[in-house]
Design a protein that fits this description.
Blueprint: E1 2-11, H1 15-21, E2 34-44, E3 51-60, H2 65-71, E4 76-86, E5 91-98, E6 105-115, E7 124-134, H3 140-173, E8 195-199
Antiparallel strand pairs: 1-7, 1-8, 2-3, 3-4, 4-5, 5-6, 6-7
Length: 205
């Protein structure tokens, strides 16, 4: 069966700060499983101003021995991530999919950062969803076991990622809700409750 995960919460910082902080998220001590982040493409649409960034994220996961024995591979895993920042509508969307063991398992993740509807100048709404599905197995029980393990890993990474990013944002901006300070070396400029269910990469964190 396909596994689903979703959660929504807010960060106590304005949208421009949070979206700048995304590029400073790693490394952080709460997400030690992320070993490297490589930007392979970045462009700005001259008509819309939308910033598109493509990255490859390297992770080291504690894969169960039964999975490694059956599927091969190692604890090293890689994820392709594509993000879009629209300065005019103040939306950031990120999409990711696992590259490692993709012939057996697909983890599709979607993330968005938008100004909070009730406090758009001081809070940013974070929304995250994931769909995890295994395929290509003769034994359905093995596929279900792999999906459940991946879901548990995703939930753990998502929780650690929340704590880690909160600490990164606090380190960058403290509790100040004033204008964005020019101390973020991203190299770009632009204007200023979790649920899991079973249906018919874990998260990077």
């Amino acid at each position: 069966m396909v596994q689903f995960f979703s959660q929504h919460f807010s960060f106590p910082h304005e949208w421009s700060k949070v979206t700048m902080g995304v590029w400073q998220k790693y490394p952080n001590p709460s997400s030690t499983h992320v070993t490297c982040v490589d930007t392979i493409d970045r462009s700005v649409d001259p008509l819309t101003g939308i910033i598109r960034t493509e990255r490859v994220v390297g992770c080291k996961q504690s894969a169960p021995k039964w999975a490694i024995k059956m599927l091969g591979g190692t604890d090293d895993a890689y994820v392709r991530e594509v993000s879009f920042i629209d300065p005019s509508t103040r939306q950031m969307k990120m999409y990711s999919v696992n590259l490692s063991l993709s012939q057996y398992l697909t983890v599709l993740e979607s993330i968005s950062y938008t100004p909070h509807h009730s406090s758009p100048t001081t809070q940013t709404l974070f929304s995250q969803s994931a769909e995890i599905s295994a395929r290509g197995f003769t034994w359905k029980t093995f596929a279900d076991k792999l999906e459940l393990f991946s879901l548990e890993q995703f939930i753990s990474n998502a929780a650690n990622g929340k704590v880690g990013f909160e600490n990164v944002l606090h380190g960058l901006f403290g509790d100040d809700e004033g204008p964005v300070k020019a101390r973020i070396g991203m190299g770009l400029e632009w204007p200023k409750g979790a649920t899991a269910s079973v249906g018919g990469e874990g998260g990077r964190g």
